[in-house]
Write a structure and sequence with these properties.
This protein is mainly beta and about 120 residues long. The strands form two sheets. Strands 2, 4, 5, 6, 9, 10 and 11 form a seven-stranded mixed β-sheet that branches. β4 and β5 form a beta hairpin. The radius of gyration is 13 Å and the shape is globular. The N and C termini lie far apart (about 40 Å). The model has no long low-confidence stretch (mean pLDDT about 95).
């Protein structure tokens, strides 16, 4: 059974930082491309950043220079370091593990940025 679990969300003031964590099952982690997505109230879920099994990263333009995605293979965990947060970053953040043509989703963690 594959599990994907997010943590680290919370309430932060604009300009502040948070680090989200995504822990995935050991049996798939090393092969998976991990992505962080977010869904603001009343909006669709959008991709924020991805990191491949080899460590290649991609970011949506709106977070470039502010967010950093990284992975610790020894801990089966991917991190999303979020700096200079803005109220527009408020959303539920979801982790996705894509491996062997299958997508596994976590239940999400809420990030609220106050102005």
């Amino acid at each position: 059974q594959v599990q994907v679990v997010e943590s680290g969300g919370g309430l932060v003031q604009a300009g502040g930082s948070l680090r989200l964590s995504c822990a995935a099952s050991r049996n798939i982690f090393s092969f998976a491309t991990i992505g962080w997505h977010r869904q603001a109230p009343g909006k669709q879920r959008d991709l924020v950043a991805t990191i491949s099994s080899g460590g290649n990263t991609n970011y949506v333009d709106s977070v470039k220079g502010r967010f950093t995605i990284s992975r610790d293979n020894a801990k089966n965990t991917v991190y999303l370091q979020m700096n200079s947060l803005k109220p527009d970053d408020t959303a539920v953040y979801y982790c996705n593990a894509a491996v062997f043509g299958v997508n596994y989703w976590g239940k999400g963690t809420l990030v609220t940025v106050s102005s």
